[in-house]
Amino acid sequence: MPVHPDAHFVTADWLLRHIDDPDVIVVDGSWHMPAAGRSGRSEYLASHIPGAVFFDLDAIADTTSSLPHMLPTPDAFARAVGALGIGNTQTIVVYDSVGLFSAARVWWSFRIMGARDVVLLDGGLPAWIAAEYPLEAGEVSRAPATFTPRFDPTTVKNFDEVKSSLGGGTQIVDARSAGRFHGRDPEPRAGLRSGHMPGAINLPFGEAIEGGRLKSASDLRTLFASRGIDPSKPVIASCGSGVSAAVIALALDLLGARQVAIYDGSWTEWAGRSDASVVTD
């Protein structure tokens, strides 16, 4: 594997130098909220980093679930990414079209499924474009690869596990907007109650990002401290559907936190259940 100086990010310059290395694979993980009227796949087909394959969050998922883009089984994940030409011994470089959003969910998915070396392109596609580096269009087809999953079940939580954690020593960090968290604004998914879980802490994911990039470690420490979040203690990150929660998980991982999980069903599941308590204030 090529050496990169950071455990979480590579620069556009680094990627340009290594883009043709046989052990490097670039992954476009762009995804947009349904209300945005944008298609990650359509935009990928129109323009992407040369050689990049497309990771479809809605397809590489548990398609038997009524909840959006839930994690697939490890074997199903391995088959899907292997078909894209991704092996778990490669250096996997993930980006998205807005800078840092859905790429964090793809990064987290690879991490918990056992990828040895997965990093994010710092600044995403906008940084690549700003550097005036080349783009290409169309589907990329690579030879199939073998991805051997080594799933870490401690990093993902289900409804019952989250419910039993309320009121205990685990910090529930909600990455949705303050308006949705406090019940002032409607949820973007029809029929869902707004509000939050009892005892949850609100940290909108966008506050951890500046200019399409994750904030510095020192700024992140200050941000988490301002909300009373202790990275040394267990955290379950939640959001609307498990995508932006991964930005919180990424930020905590950068700070060295080791007890971080994502509530995969997130608010879509919680607010849709009659046995889930919802608080507004």
Give an overview of the whole structure.
Helices cover 28% and strands 14% of the residues. The strands form 3 sheets. Strands 1-5-4-2-3 form a 5-stranded parallel sheet. The protein is an alpha/beta fold and 281 residues long. The protein has helices at 12-18, 40-46, 74-83, 102-112, 124-130, 159-165, 178-181, 217-226, 245-254, 266-270, and strands spanning 9-10, 24-28, 53-54, 91-95, 117-121, 156-157, 171-174, 201-202, 209-210, 213-214, 235-238, 260-263. It has 2 domains: 9-151, Oxidized Rhodanese, domain 1; 154-270, 3-Layer(aba) Sandwich (Oxidized Rhodanese, domain 1).
**CATH fold-level label of the largest domain:** Oxidized Rhodanese, domain 1
For the largest sheet, list the strands in their spatial order.
Answer: 1-5-4-2-3
| Class of secondary structure makeup | alpha/beta
Strand content: 5-15%
Low-confidence stretches: none
Series of secondary-structure elements, N-terminal to C-terminal: EHEHEHEHEHEHEHEEEHEHEH
Short recap of the structure:
This protein is an alpha/beta fold. It has helices at 12-18, 40-46, 74-83, 102-112, 124-130, 159-165, 178-181, 217-226, 245-254, 266-270; strands at 9-10, 24-28, 53-54, 91-95, 117-121, 156-157, 171-174, 201-202, 209-210, 213-214, 235-238, 260-263.
